[in-house]
Amino acid sequence: MDRPVRVDEEKKEEQEEPITLEVQDGFIGPSADFNQGE
Amino acid sequence: MATSKAAPDATLDAFLAKIATATKMSVCSGASNPADHTAVLAATLATVAMTAGLGNGDYTAADDGTGALGRKVTTTAKNGVSVTATGDATCIVLEDASNNIIYITTCTTQTLTSGNTVNIPAWKIQIGDPT
Lengths: 38, 131
Prior knowledge:
heterodimer, A: 38 residues, mainly beta, 0% helix, 13% strand, disordered C terminus, B: elongated
């Protein structure tokens, strides 16, 4: 006698790995020619 | 001993403290900087809250690592931030509680997809000693 076969139709959604941004640092300071002005 | 140009840490930190008033950090798209909060909202792909306060929030102040380039503020890394819109991330915007833009920096262009998450690593803003 055949047993009923249960088919698990649940689909697991794959979550993508988080993207890691490459963020640029900022620098605020006297420019090289700051003292070469007028 | 000769005189020299100088700015005490407290002077430089006053600038860094202004940066640390930002209460949110947004990852934005676009080829140019958003001009105001409305533009930030339109370009936002992901936003995360920041705890304001230099040294007691998500902003750490310290001497530059070399000891010769003034002071820096470093933001806390924010991982697993929900992406709420799909687009190419091009910049990071800090805004204060009144939605004033405090600072904008750039990031390497990367495509973000709504529903995923993004990691924003720690980054810094450095202000140099007078020369």
